[in-house]
Amino acid sequence: MFCGDSVSVHRALVVVFAGSATIVGMGDHLIDLADAITSLRELTLAELLDRGLSVRGTFDEIDDPVLVGADGLPVETWREGYPYDERLSRDAYEESKRFLQIELLKAQSWIKETDQRLVVLFEGRDAAGKGGSIKRFMEHLNPRGASVVALSAPSPREQGQWYFQRYVQHLPTRGEITLFDRSCYNRAVVERVMGFCSDGDYEEFMAHAPEFEGMLVRSGTILVKLWFSVSRREQLTRFTIRRIDPVRQWKLSPMDLASLDRWDEYTDAKNTMFRRTHHDAAPWTVVRANDKKRGRLEAMKFVLNCLDYPDRDPDVVGRPDPLIVGPPDVVAADAGEDTASDRVR
After folding, report:
1. Which domain holds residue 328?
2. Where is the signal peptide (predicted)?
3. Mind listing the pLDDT tens digit for each residue in 252-284?
């Protein structure tokens, strides 16, 4: 349900998860991560609901629901490692989003008129906010010149091809924008951690990715690589919302649940990816996304700052917030992904 009287999810993974420790509204208590992970994986939906968990959100906020506990308080795991004390308000978000989307339309017109090619990669852990950000990027763009690519697992034929081949066919032609909801970097993180590729395949990708990107950039393609960062407890909160919210249950896959015990392995794979594929032609940019709304807006600002389009409104675009967006060595270590407190005790 999505109205004021809906289910609760605040304090959090306390009620829902077996419980030795809890997380309260202000996030000043810790959850036992091991218990939380076990509960999310093993309890049925009915058992989770019996523990008092629910999802709350007005119809205007249906895309950003809140998890609420049995005490009626929202779970505020988003505060973990986050540089702001409050989430961006709905009104401030909607106003800024509208003006930034107008700037995106200006940029799209420039891309078409000047035969530019723009590729933006949206990468990050599961439930980091990649899809929601892409949705806001695309919301008012002309679909004839902008597309989203979200590829499923490769077919047997594709598995026998050059690894980059299935991605090359989706690259934009002149005057177009392509947004990748996950990309060839699946090999560097998901496939590496889950054992879906051999060591040889992995090493070949890591060696060739910068070369491949260099060719794209030298040919005139504008390439932007974004990593959406989410803390461990906030990811668990978002997974729980997906588990109990009927319109989001399809988003929680067996792969998501399988990844719960591999947080540190994903962290190592991510950091290795940054170290080996962050280069001058195509650097990585980290977006701290515990606050989804702020993360979306700052990602838009960053991409717009990469484009030299005319009639830019500097008051709207400005400069991305350095507390939210920046290079891996500046932002990633503080984003809540790598801290010792994230480890299952």
Report:
1. 90-230+251-342
2. none
3. 888 888 888 899 999 999 999 999 999 999 999
